[in-house]
Amino acid sequence: RLPDADVDEDVARDALERERRAEYRALAVRTAVALTVAGGQMAWMLVHMYGFAWFGWTWVHTVGHSPWTNVVLFALALPVQVWAGAPIYVGAWRVGRHGGTDMNTLIALGTSTAFIYSMVVTFAPAWLAGASGFEMTVYYESASAIIGLVLLGRLLEARAKGQTSDAVRALIALRPQTARVLEEGQEY
Fold first, then answer.
1. What is the C-alpha to C-alpha distance for residues 118 and 13, in angstroms, rounded to an integer?
2. Residue 54: beta bridge partners?
3. Whether the Cβ atoms of residue 26 and residue 158 lie closer than 8 Å to each other
4. How far is CA 12 from CA 20, 131, 159, in A?
5. What are the Cα distances from residue 166, in Å, to 7, 169, 175?
6. Is 122:70 a contact under the CB 8 Å cutoff?
């Protein structure tokens, strides 16, 4: 090997490491936003369903039944669907345009269905008013929670891969720079 090859290899390795860390940070932010929104939506839905009457907070329960509740939940879920869930939808699109399916397809289909149905209930409930068997309930929190939990799984996977890569690099750094061969009592 030439000495310059080692330097170029180190520069390339450092660039890849910086890129991996930047992607990890971006995934961490998407995950945090999705899980925070989903947690808030779930808390709001629990208040909507049960209220906090046992604490004397009956006003929260009445606010939960406001007609604007679904609009607020929509406004919170929209960034999760569009921004935080973008890697999932992009992955589903890449596989789908070649006629295939994968986990991204399943997640995109499920969360989109819940989100779009909730949008119809929120903004055009008359479409479902005559349909029997349809409950006028929104599922924004479910779509947000699914996206958040999938992103959390990907974040944990990326973290594990990064730790494995670091451990392999540490092992490679332990290799000796020179080796001596001992053959028939002669050292080479």
1. 46
2. none
3. no
4. 12, 60, 21
5. 19, 5, 15
6. yes
Helical (H) or strand (E) element with 92: helix 86-96
Determine the Cα–Cα distance for residues 186 and 83; give it in Å rounded to an integer: 66
> pTM score, two decimals?
0.78
Q: Are 128 and 117 in contact (CB under 8 A)?
A: no
Distance of CA 119 to the CA centre of its chain: 22
Asked if 87 and 149 count as a contact pair (C-beta separation under 8 A), the reply is no
Reported as a single tens digit per residue, the pLDDT across 92-142 is 999 999 999 999 999 999 999 999 999 998 998 888 777 766 678 899 999
Percent of the chain clearing pLDDT 70 (strictly above)? 85
Closest alpha carbon to 31 in 159, 174, 123, 176? 159
Single-letter amino acid, residue 129: A
CA–CA distance, 48 with 52 (Å, rounded to integer): 9
Number of residues in the chain: 188
Q: What is the largest CA-CA distance in the chain?
A: 94
